[in-house]
Write a structure and sequence with these properties.
Elements (H helix, E strand, L loop, with lengths): L14 H10 L4 E5 L1 H10 L4 E6 L19 E3 L4 H15 L5 E6 L4 H17 L2 E6 L6 H10 L4 E4 L9 H10 L4 E3 L3 H4 L4 E4 L2 H16 L16 E5 H6 L6 H4 L4 E3 L1
Parallel strand pairs: 1-2, 2-3, 4-5, 4-6, 6-7, 7-8, 9-10
Antiparallel strand pairs: 8-9
Helix pairs in contact: 1-2, 3-4
């Protein structure tokens, strides 16, 4: 087996070029991380099989016709990124009880992130908060984004479920700590890097599950016949060191629900 890795390093404008480059190599299949990468691959080929290791909303992003019957050449995993946004907002509000103005750090050009923001706004009234979008279109913009959050006097923030940001976890959690800002993340990699908390699926598990799709397709299965899988296990990870660093006390009712506590 020959694997040809490519990375846009957080720059979505490079995805189309990388997808075209990979298609020219005539691979047996393409594995993608994140909806934008899957969209770029789908646009570049309608014949080569595409396996999504992660996708926030495969149907909403136009990647598959439905989860049960994907159709076309794309299948894989969808991690409910848009649906889980509201749950993350609830947990953040329970943790930072006095927070009323919440920043959503996201790239609205990514369809699942735009859908998530609408869902968050719909939940605002019930949670007695106001969620506002702070655009971050590349990893290089996080410093200015956190400065804007500080200048705008936000009480807390949610980071989008864009899995391509995981390599930048250390940089992002340091910026959050510098501004003493409670931030809810989607991936456990962030609290493990020193961030406050996360709620979502384990991205490593998603890639392991994606490997089963690769195996089936290489053995002759068609992507259109393989239903898109959704995760059934979600984990809440809390970093008490990070909480202490920003002067936040985690309420006992939230702490009791944590699947993992980093002390």
């Amino acid at each position: 087996m020959i694997i040809e890795p490519r990375s846009a390093r957080g720059d979505l404008t490079r995805l189309a070029t990388l997808a075209t480059e990979l298609v020219a190599l005539k691979p047996d299949l393409i594995v993608t991380q994140g909806s934008p990468a899957a969209q770029a691959a789908k646009k570049a080929t309608s014949t080569i099989a595409i396996v999504m290791a992660t996708s926030g909303d495969a149907v909403g992003a136009g990647l598959v016709a439905s989860l049960a019957r994907p159709g076309g050449n794309v299948t894989g995993l969808s991690f409910l990124g848009t649906d889980l946004g509201t749950k993350r907002l609830e947990l953040l509000k329970e943790t930072a009880v006095k927070a009323s103005r919440i920043a959503f750090l996201a790239n609205p050009a990514i369809i699942p992130e735009a859908i998530t923001f609408k869902n968050l706004q719909s939940a605002d009234a019930a949670l007695d908060v106001t969620t506002e979008l702070v655009e971050v279109r590349s990893p290089e913009e996080f410093e200015s984004a956190f400065a804007a959050v500080a200048h705008g006097r936000f009480d807390a923030a949610l980071l989008s479920a864009n899995s391509s940001l995981i390599p930048y976890a250390q940089k992002i959690v340091l910026l959050a700590a510098r501004h003493r800002l409670p931030v809810m993340y989607s991936w456990r990699d962030f609290p493990e890097a020193g961030g406050l908390m996360s709620y979502g699926v384990n991205v490593s598990d998603l890639f392991r599950r994606a490997a089963t799709y690769v195996d089936k397709i290489l053995k002759g299965a068609k992507p259109s016949d393989l239903p898109v899988e959704q995760p059934t296990k979600f984990e809440l990870v809390i970093n008490l060191k990070a909480a202490k660093q920003i002067g936040l006390t985690i309420p006992p009712n939230v702490l009791a629900r944590a699947d993992r506590v980093i002390r």
